[in-house]
Design a protein that fits this description.
alpha+beta, Jelly Rolls, Arc Repressor Mutant, subunit A, four-stranded antiparallel β-sheet, 22% strand
Length: 224
């Protein structure tokens, strides 16, 4: 639970809110390909990633699903439907072995009943999700396909705009197929871009994984 408390939404709340939430979560473990929930399911609660990577799949009215984002440790999902009591908007699938904290909607209502001022902290979670979505849309407007790939890579690594400067290498469990889908390029284009970045010493690639070797330089590349 330490990683979930130290990063992401929960880290930005007050100590009483963190304690209230963590005292009510249940721990769930998933294997590769296991679905946490699917789009259209009834809302049961919020998910906080403790270990592993969760793929967020998006469906449009007439096409999809597509991988839209990767949830890393510290990320939360399901806040909007849990608070509104509406059906799930996305599908969450475990990319590999993962551990997730589940905060039920009933637990959220209980927390808020004890202190109504806590609502603003749960709304902050929704605001973070909205900011992430708007940033992803803006990045897809890059006309340079290489910059779209870099922007997505930084986002799924958790070091996009507003993130603290990071100097050490960061390993991201992302396949070239998912990276291509998120950047709206072909898999061949994504692979070519990664090879260019690798020759520049910015990244290293492996099976289903990309390691960002120079996070600061990669962010500078995107800003040029």
């Amino acid at each position: 639970m330490q990683r979930v408390s130290a990063t992401g939404w929960l880290a930005g709340t007050t100590a009483p809110v963190r304690a209230s939430a963590l005292s009510r979560v249940t721990i769930r473990r998933y294997g590769p390909g296991d679905a946490l929930h699917r789009a259209g399911d009834e809302s049961g609660g919020m998910y906080g990633v403790a270990e592993g990577t969760i793929r967020l799949l998006l469906n449009a009215v007439d096409h999809g699903p597509y991988c839209g984002h990767l949830l890393q440790p510290g990320h939360w999902a399901g806040d909007g439907p849990s608070i509104a009591g509406s059906p799930r908007l996305v599908t969450l699938v475990s990319a590999g072995p993962s551990t997730v904290l589940f905060l039920s909607r009933a637990a959220i209502m209980e927390i808020e009943a004890r202190d109504p001022t806590y609502w603003r902290h749960f709304m902050a979670s929704m605001n973070l999700s909205l900011g992430l979505a708007l940033g992803a849309i803006a990045d897809l407007m890059h006309r340079d396909h290489r910059k779209r790939v870099v922007a997505v890579l930084l986002r799924v690594a958790g070091i996009r705009d507003g993130a603290p400067a990071v100097e050490s290498p960061i390993e991201v469990d992302v396949s070239q197929s998912d990276l291509a889908a998120m950047a709206n390029v072909t898999r061949t284009t994504a692979g070519t871009t990664l090879r260019l970045l690798a020759r520049a010493g910015l990244v290293a690639t492996g099976y289903g994984r990309v390691t960002i070797l120079e996070p600061a330089r990669l962010r500078t590349y995107l800003a040029e």
